[in-house]
Amino acid sequence: MFLFTNLLVSENLHAQTEKTASWSAGADIYSSFIWRGTRLGSGPAIQPVIEFSTGSFSAGAWGSYDFNDYQEVDLYVSFALPAGFSIGLTDYYSPGLRYFDYSTSSGSHAFELTLDWSGEKFDLSTNCVINEAGGAGSLGGDFYIEAGYSFNSLRLFAGAGNGWHTYDADEERNIFALCNLGLEVSKTIMITERFAIPFTAQLILNPDREQMFLVAGFTF
Predict the structure, then answer these.
(1) What does pTM read for this prediction?
(2) Full domain range(s) for residue 75
(3) What total of structural domains would you count in the chain?
């Protein structure tokens, strides 16, 4: 997610200590929404985001909407840690379901814990859904791990998971499998001397579902 329109507000916390808080907002437009190797919805997707951050803490809301009724609104919090690590919690929610339904049979929220690490070229993300929610489609214990390597404007990535990443209800199959292989190319398109639009294209292969996707998107 790329964030823009920063509003900075500074406040004194101690005698000589200044802490900065910022609000940011933006939106992505993608040709289709591919999440961890799985297509969600159909057709182009608009993905707005709003975030508040102060110090090592960030909290925000992110959504995805297409023209064929797919909707998603996620709330998240994260904390930056030393040595490139961060931890976070995400609440995945689909607006077509009752918001205050937290039951296992029809619950509309899936809560995911995340531990990430980012280095100069390598990055690693580990994620685990901690609850079963029938409406959201999580089984509880849904695990996903992704590693990436970046150089110049290219990023290579590989991800594997179980639960809602690979689960097949028809076959009653829930295995840990490779589900998200691909490469991402990013560039900045200069519109004027002071205005530019980030552009991203991804080629994605899901070996588990035997599907391939080519997507592109802009950030505003």
Answers:
(1) 0.87
(2) 4-155
(3) 1
